[in-house]
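User: Can you recover a sequence for this backbone? Please restate the input before giving your answer.

Assistant: Of course. Working from this structure:
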């Protein structure tokens, strides 16, 4: 079939815009032009949060000498090998995994004193846990007072983090969430899985939609920029699939919905707001062109090989500082090991 060479927009598109040139005839590891930065990170104060994949991003930024912030560092007496057991070194504060847009928004609202959930503790075994970071300690707190004191210190640190951050990196992970019917408080895990008791009259499931997530993220950014007007945001979408779904769908179908919505939100915000950038870690890891080679045998967790490849694409645009900082202790002895609360749900599939 021959086409007449009339003038049209595709004639002026670069080579990277065409599948045959960029993907079809290129070995997966040689595919490039994944990302073009919107603004620089050099000399900027960077903080991270998000789902478990975000732990890899924070670790790589720290090890490459970027100005990575940590407002709740591990105490000197704590052995490096168990930092992550206590929520240290995972992110820029000890909030644990922040899976959803609503959880992120409410984290900031709680830190600013704009939202105080009715339910402040969950009973767990012989102690108590914080419903908004129930796995932040390896064992429950002995008393409610200790939960409250720990949370007060934590939320104070969160405010300090947002006051000081130039670039906030957030990895969107889930659309599925459990919330309180009474006041709308959103939890990182379903009540009853890591503390508390599930009660249909107290909690409900929600699968957040595109409009809801967009509204959450815009509300969050508006509040953050009131604290720090020059703050900018770098969003990614986690390539780690759902461990389990609370919908009636097969888990892969549910996963495709969640990741599609999150990717659409991140792209929309980056396309419409000058202070938002998007990095395609999701596409680099999970699309079929890489033939699944970046996943571990469980086809869910990302291998260290995959993490290194993703970050290599990132560092092509954001070159690490020429004078790197002294090596910083990593959060775990094994680079493949990240803390993912959602893993707890796997156990219930065997019942």
């Amino acid at each position: 079939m021959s086409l007449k060479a009339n003038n049209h927009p595709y004639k002026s598109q670069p080579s990277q815009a065409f599948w045959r040139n960029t993907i079809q005839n290129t070995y997966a590891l040689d595919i490039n032009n994944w990302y073009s930065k919107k603004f620089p990170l050099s000399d900027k104060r960077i903080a991270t949060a998000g789902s478990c994949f975000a732990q890899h991003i924070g670790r790589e930024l720290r090890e490459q000498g970027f100005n990575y912030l940590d407002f709740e560092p591990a105490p000197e007496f704590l052995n490096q090998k168990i930092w992550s057991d206590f929520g240290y070194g995972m992110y820029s504060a000890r909030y644990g995994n922040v899976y959803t847009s609503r959880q992120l928004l409410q984290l900031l609202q709680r830190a600013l004193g704009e939202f105080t959930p009715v339910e402040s503790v969950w009973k767990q075994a012989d102690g108590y846990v914080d419903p908004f970071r129930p796995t932040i300690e390896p064992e429950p707190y002995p008393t409610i007072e200790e939960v409250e004191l720990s949370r007060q210190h934590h939320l104070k640190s969160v405010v300090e983090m947002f006051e000081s951050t130039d670039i906030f990196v957030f990895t969107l992970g889930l659309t599925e969430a459990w919330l309180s019917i009474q006041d709308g408080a959103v939890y990182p895990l379903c009540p009853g899985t890591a503390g508390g008791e599930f009660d249909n009259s107290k909690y409900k499931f929600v699968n957040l939609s595109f409009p809801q997530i967009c509204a959450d993220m815009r509300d969050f950014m508006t509040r953050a920029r009131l604290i720090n007007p020059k703050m900018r945001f770098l969003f990614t979408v986690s390539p780690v699939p759902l461990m389990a779904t609370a919908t009636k769908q097969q888990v892969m179908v549910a996963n495709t919905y969640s990741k599609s919505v999150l990717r659409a939100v991140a792209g929309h915000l980056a396309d419409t707001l000058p202070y938002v950038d998007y990095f395609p870690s999701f596409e680099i890891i999970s699309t079929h062109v890489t033939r699944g080679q970046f996943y571990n045998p469980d086809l869910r967790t990302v291998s260290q090989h995959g993490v290194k490849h993703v970050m290599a694409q990132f560092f092509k645009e954001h070159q690490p500082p020429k004078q790197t900082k002294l090596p910083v202790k990593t959060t775990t002895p094994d680079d493949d090991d990240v803390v993912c609360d959602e893993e707890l749900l796997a156990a219930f599939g065997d019942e």
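That completes the design. Confidence is low (pLDDT under 50) at residues 325-335.
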